Structure formats: structure tokens, C-alpha cells
From TrEMBL:
Start and end residues of each F-box domain: 2-47
SMART domains named in the record: FBOX
Protein origin, superkingdom: Eukaryota
Xref: Pfam families: F-box
Record protein name field: F-box domain-containing protein
InterPro entries (alphabetical): F-box-like_dom_sf (IPR036047), F-box_dom (IPR001810)
């Protein structure tokens, strides 16, 4: 059985999107309205920037 990407649970979408580099987030937002709306929330932006900052400090790169 197939699941539409727009029907994925929010926690799964957040887990996926949190691993996307900031440079690529714009393209991910075009995936569906739900992903676009989620990426615009203050809590998501703060979480994503925090993860990117931590990875940068540790010398890690985030990969898609």
C-alpha cells in the first residue's frame, strides 16, 4: 500500500526536513503544501537553525 507524502505523520516530516541542508530547504518546501506550511513555523525554523549550528560547530555536514 502506498502512502502519499502529504499524509506522512508530522513527526516523520519534521525528522526528514530537519536533515535537509538550509540551502536545499526551498526546494523541499515545493514538495507539498503541508511541508511548505511546516517549514514556515517559528518552532521549525528555530529547531532547524539550532541543528545546523550544532553540526557546523562539530564540523559535520548535513546530507540529504
Amino acid at each position: 500500500m502506498w502512502t502519499m507524502i502529504s499524509n506522512l505523520p508530522n513527526d516523520m516530516v519534521v525528522a526528514i526536513m530537519s536533515r535537509v541542508p538550509l540551502k536545499s530547504l526551498r526546494e523541499v518546501r515545493l514538495t507539498c503544501k503541508k511541508w511548505n506550511d511546516l517549514s514556515k513555523t517559528q518552532s521549525f525554523r528555530e529547531m532547524h537553525i539550532g541543528k545546523a549550528s550544532t553540526a557546523s560547530k562539530e564540523g559535520q555536514s548535513q546530507m540529504l
